Amino acid sequence: MATYVLIHGAGSDSWYWHLVEPELRKRGHDVVAPDLPCDDDSAGFTEYADAVVDAIGDRTDLILVAQSLAGFTAPVVCDRLPVDLLVLVAAMVPRPGESAGEWWANTGQERARREKAERDGRRIDGEFDVVAEFFHDVPADVTAAAMARGERVQSGAVFEKPWPLGAWPDVPTRFLLCRDDRFFPAEFQRRVVAERLGIVPDEIDGGHLPAFSRPKELVDRLEAYRAGL
Q1: Closest CA to 36 of 24, 50, 22, 26
Q2: Are 48 and 17 within 8 A, CB to CB?
Q3: Which residue from 93, 108, 185, 203 has the highest number of Cβ atoms inside 10 Å of its Cβ?
Q4: What is the pTM of this model?
Q5: CB atoms within 10 A of CB 206
Q6: What is the phi/psi pair of residue 30, to 5°?
Q7: Which residues fall within 8 angstroms of residue 50, CB to CB, at 6 or more apart?
Q8: Residue pLDDT, tens place only, 103-136
């Protein structure tokens, strides 16, 4: 049995994992899915990591799964606790001292997003379209439930704070990108992961939110990673 620690992305909460958590529990694992203090203007990634560490308590055999912005938080947790495996899912990969706000320009994310939209024949001018960018492959009932819940307020303050680690933690790391991700396009992620982690990412079909669109397939991938330890 492992302890899967599921860390959500920006403007979200533990409900993001509500389809993944029961699948992992059916396979005999413990699951921790903390809510991060994303609406707290005083919180940086140190405080985000505090929330995760507190939720873990004295559990062991830890596998951390980090979605999107949680790519900044999960390595900080790995620096504090013995972690068996870190799995980044459609995630941001920081460099030492880089803020999450700097990450966008440093990696060229916006250009990559616009180039993908052009290739797909989509227009992305104007206000950011959450449904078109994030939910285009999510089942209608899950999308409706998510829209009914609404987004949590995401403080912009955390994007101004530098990533606190001096190096990537010495923890086995896997990266799972989403081939149809409109926000972090696949070719963009292949380049960033190679440059920053020196590894070849694995790939899954679907958009930016695989825990909503492909929860069972995502769990299968996580279990395969665990079996490979």
Answers
A1: 50
A2: no
A3: 185
A4: 0.97
A5: 20
A6: -85, 150
A7: none
A8: 999 999 999 999 999 999 998 887 899 999 999 9
